[in-house]
Amino acid sequence: MDIIYVLIPLSILLISIAVLVFFWAVKGGQFDDLDSPAHRILFDDDDEPQPAPEQTKPADKKSSDD
Amino acid sequence: MSVRETEACFHCGEPVRGRQRWTAMINGEEQPMCCPGCKAVAETIMASGLKDYYRHRTELPEPASVPASMAGPAARDTLTLYDSPAMQSRFVAHHGTAQGTTHGTTAEATLIIEGITCAACAWLIEHRLAQLKGVTSASLNLSNHRLVIRWEPEQILLSAIFEAIWQLGYKAAPFSATADDERHNRESKAAIRRLAVSGIGMMQVMMLAVPLYVGMAEQYEVFVRFASMLLTTPVVLYGARPFFDAAIRDLRSRHLTMDVPVSLAILLAFCASIWSTFNQGVEVYFDSVCMFTFLLLLGRFLEMRARHRMGNAGNNLLSLLPNVACRLTASGEEIIPVEEIRTGDRLKIRPGQPIPADGLILCGESAVDEAALTGEYMPISKVTGDTVIGGTVNCENPLEIEVTATGASARLSAIVRLMDRAQQEKPRIALLADRIASRFVAAVLVISGSVFTYWTLQGDDHAFFIALSVLVVTCPCALSLATPTALTATTTALRERGLLISKGHVLETLNQVNRVVFDKTGTLTEGHLQLEEVRPFPGFDENPLYELAAALEQDSAHPIARAFSQFEPATVSDIRHHTSQGVSGTHEGQKVRFGRADFACSKPPETPQSETGQWLLLSVDDQPAGWFLLNDTLRRTTPELIAALQQQSIAVVMLTGDPGASAPAIAAEAGIREFYQGLSAEQKLEKVRGWQAAGDTVLMVGDGINDVPVLAGADVSLAVSDATDLAKTNADALLISGQMTLIRDALALAKRTRIIIRENILWALVYNLIALPLAAAGLVPPWAAAIGMSFSSLLVVLNALRLTRLPKHVSGEL
Fold this sequence. Notes:
The complex is a heterodimer.
Chain A: H1 4-27, H2 36-40, H3 53-56
Chain B: E1 22-26, E2 29-33, H1 36-47, H2 52-56, H3 66-70, H4 73-80, H5 85-88, E3 92-95, E4 106-114, H6 119-131, E5 135-141, E6 146-151, H7 158-167, E7 171-174, H8 179-214, H9 221-239, H10 241-252, H11 259-279, H12 286-313, E8 324-329, E9 332-337, E10 346-349, E11 358-363, E12 366-369, H13 371-374, E13 380-382, E14 387-388, E15 393-394, E16 399-405, H14 411-424, H15 429-457, H16 463-497, E17 499-501, H17 506-510, E18 515-519, H18 520-524, E19 525-536, H19 542-553, H20 559-563, E20 573-578, E21 582-587, E22 590-595, H21 597-600, E23 614-620, E24 623-634, H22 638-647, E25 651-655, H23 662-670, E26 674-676, H24 681-693, E27 698-702, H25 708-713, E28 716-719, H26 725-730, E29 733-735, H27 742-776, H28 782-813
Parallel strand pairs in B: 18-25, 18-27, 25-26, 27-28, 28-29
Antiparallel strand pairs in B: 1-2, 3-4, 4-6, 4-7, 5-6, 8-9, 8-10, 10-16, 11-14, 11-16, 12-13, 12-15, 17-29, 19-24, 20-21, 21-22, 22-23, 23-24
Helix pairs in contact in B: 8-9, 8-12, 9-11, 9-12, 10-11, 11-12, 11-16, 12-16, 15-16, 16-27, 16-28, 27-28
């Protein structure tokens, strides 16, 4: 059972790394929006191929730019 | 006239009330639409291949009045202002190649989007924008409604992006971070970090606590205790910092809050456990310290998010003002940012544009919509020599003004100052709650102190730990959990129903409210003109009349025009606006005129009689064709709310700036007996102060800029959905849906909340009264105490969660 003298310090080390990674993620803004990702994953938009919207919308003047 | 109440608009869910029927093809089926605005939005969505929006959405969007008003060339003109470099320099960042050239660069900007109701809105906007050629990325943050967009300026104009958002029925405005936003951002990031540290720390320490409790590893006990200490140290020193800071601040101001015993308990337990670790003491409390810290931080975190959520929607206080203005100089017109406007400048203001500063009209005559400042929904006609106020909207014709006051000396700023003062002088209801808390805290400290003294005198070694257990045991249950869980549950329940609470004291104060003050226009009423009645003259049919009127009004920014946006306009050419009189045009060779009776006909017929509203006459070739009655109607749920409030013997008062005859009529229709009209913002505030001085607790419900000082000064304030940003940010709560009856539900729920809080505190006290003596006498082993603690906390939380189910019963009972 002396392995415990290794395992516990090891787990503390791993946790410190996890906390540092978490801090880095917070700093990068990954936790700025806590609401949308939960919903976003539910919206699959590949039910059917999307029609080319630029042509179907006459109001879209920009489509003629190219 | 026929009213079709049963059918609901497929897009926004409003009942289809128009006389003309609008439909749009959705998934191959014809669906009813309430107005051309919704129809245009629905068609845009379908044409973009984003029909899944209708499947994904969980909330209905706001009725789309935007595209209708976008039809006017004036409004589109305003959007092209966003393309000017002067404007873009303020909120667009350029990335990419060398300076000076735009070749191959991408631009990035943050926009605030208004009108987001659920996650599907974000999906819709992101996907629509991603389809535009030249847009590289678009990502919308649902918590603060900010859209970060990157695009290639060579490929697409920024105004086209704005237009695409408007076509979906949302409003976009450039966002520039204020000091407040920066602070919010830092605050929430720090809170998440603290939460993570104490959460992860708690899990680890709990895990290590199991062998200690069950006595599984006696030979490792010292080692495990040291490991726990190491893990707890960051939780206490970093995670619990906010409590220590607050406690020190409170002690300095000689004022006891919950932060004091919380800090004491955390620190004492931590120090005692360290002492115990080094001296082979009986007990360590590292697990309790971590759990306690984590639970408290979680509560504070949820509270903070609710607080930020509301400020976020309209965080630019003066965003009413346009960001750019058109200055007239000797060499022509130039577009300048509003900050550069100086007193004495000559500005040109196009119809549909807000006026950026206080000024004097040099040339031109027009009607100016001052609704935001005065609550008056009919525009006021202004001629050369009249003064205009910054933040109001020019409706009809171009105006040239000379600026007389800008920035701090302008009228809008004066109202902001009045609001600041009102806020400072606001009666501190929160103090009452604090006083109760500080009494409780004092009692806890005294009891712990005497327990310690008693056991020390008895010569017991455990005196310190027994006193500590009093501190630990009383804090989390009695006040730290009982109150916040109940408040959070109620806040969530109300939010799901469309009432957003942003300040902590609202639910407590709502219990004491015995006087509710309403603003008239936009609060009790819808806040815009609606077509109420039409009387065609013999020989004319109703429908062609609507089409003619709609055609004449189609390009106008005038509030009257909105009443006709639901009709398909006929073809009318040569449309001319005559300030304060009406509109004229030519239809199939005939002169049509629409407006005041004496403008429409040279020999006008007698105006029909009605209590409120405005009769307008439509004429064809100088022959009267039909009367239109326009009126600002009551919100449908208003009378029900007023009746419910009066039943609970809550005084209901209406305060309005409107001096006209419509005030008594609206009051009578809503069932309000006490009303005061013709009041300025200052006078409204004085009235409310008078009631407060007489001992009343006042709930103010309002929407306009002129209500803002009163909202800030009332005990509790509530802004309605279409309120101006300034009103929204200053109210304690926001009614997102137009359901006025939610105010009644909120009052009822606040009462339930208080009952639940009392139950919770009572339970916690009973638990403590039983557990404390037993624990103090050493009869409860640590594992039993831990189970008992968790069980009692769980019970408190479950009891609080009952509140989330309550509103249905509440509305059922009343």
